[in-house]
Write a structure and sequence with these properties.
Elements (H helix, E strand, L loop, with lengths): L1 H13 L7 H4 L3 H22 L4 H23 L5 H15 L1 H4 L9 H25 L12 H6 L7 H13 L8 H18 L4 H21 L4 H25 L9 H13 L1
Helix pairs in contact: 1-4, 3-4, 9-11, 10-11, 12-13
């Protein structure tokens, strides 16, 4: 583990008063937050564009790791758990969350859905034990010790991309038995929401937007039940559009014309050509 130890020591040096880097010394959790999300986005973009075998992808993952270590160093300076303690707690959490892997006497799970449901049950049991321990000490249990199903579902971060959050909301709700049995059973709901969206077009913009949102939400659930990530699906559709748009640009350039030389109908014809190529 010499690599991670070297990284931790270098981050400590960056944060060392008097000899460290003025930029790093000026940072806080709040000021670093935009960089964290940007580094994660750059890693995911490199993974998508260049794949896991690219040195550039590895470098971007290293930038994410640097952000993690930097946040941990800030915590350590504030007298809170540092990187080592956080890593140890995470290792314990992994064992706790995966008894089917680390406990030879535990039954195996066959599907990701079984794992998710078991994890929610494990967390509920742990919270109940914490509440009971607090009562035994004569203390009032923390409100979060035994959250309701709504509180569990509501814990999905609002900062997630909307389609990703929609899928996670459905996944959390599923752990309490509120879900469709399979993807095929979601499809009638997709059809229903689409028809409601079409009908809402005559009821004003507010109603139309609401029904469009419902359609997006149920499409995210259909993707989830198929085992797909809705954000990735839309990202692929974006790239498909860009590829065809590039083809259109090349067709127009080869003709020695500009986009303004074509009517919308003619551009649609070029779009169809781009689709075929």
């Amino acid at each position: 583990m010499s690599g991670i130890l070297d990284l931790i020591q270098r981050v400590k040096a960056l944060r060392s008063p008097g000899s460290g880097c003025p930029w790093d010394l000026a940072q806080s959790h709040e000021s670093l937050a935009p960089y964290f999300t940007e580094e994660v986005a750059e890693f995911l973009d490199a993974l998508d564009r260049q794949g896991p075998n690219s040195p550039h992808t590895w470098e971007e993952l290293g930038d994410v790791l640097f952000q993690v270590v930097l946040h941990a160093q800030l915590l350590s300076e504030q007298g809170r758990p540092g990187f080592d303690e956080i890593a140890s707690k995470t290792a314990e959490k992994i064992v706790d969350r995966h008894p089917h892997v680390f406990d030879p006497n535990h039954p195996r799970f066959e599907t990701p859905e079984q794992v998710n449901k078991a994890w929610e049950q494990i967390k509920a049991s742990r919270r109940a034990a914490q509440a009971n321990a607090a009562l035994a000490r004569g203390e009032t249990p923390a409100p979060q010790s035994n959250p309701t199903p709504f509180q569990v579902v509501d814990s999905v971060p609002r900062s997630l991309p909307a389609l990703q959050r929609a899928a996670r909301l459905g996944e959390k709700a599923s752990s309490f038995g509120f879900d469709w049995p399979d993807a095929a059973s979601v499809f009638p709901k997709v059809d229903e929401e689409f028809r409601e969206f079409v009908e809402a077009r005559a009821e004003g913009e507010t109603r139309e937007k609401e029904e469009l949102g419902d359609l997006f939400f149920v499409l995210a659930q259909y993707a989830r039940k198929r085992g797909w990530h809705p954000e990735q699906i839309v990202a692929q559709a974006n790239e498909k559009f860009l590829g065809r748009y590039r083809n259109m640009d090349e067709v127009i350039a080869r003709a020695g014309k500009s986009w303004g030389d074509y009517s919308p109908e003619e551009l649609e014809e070029i779009w169809q050509i781009a689709k075929r190529t």
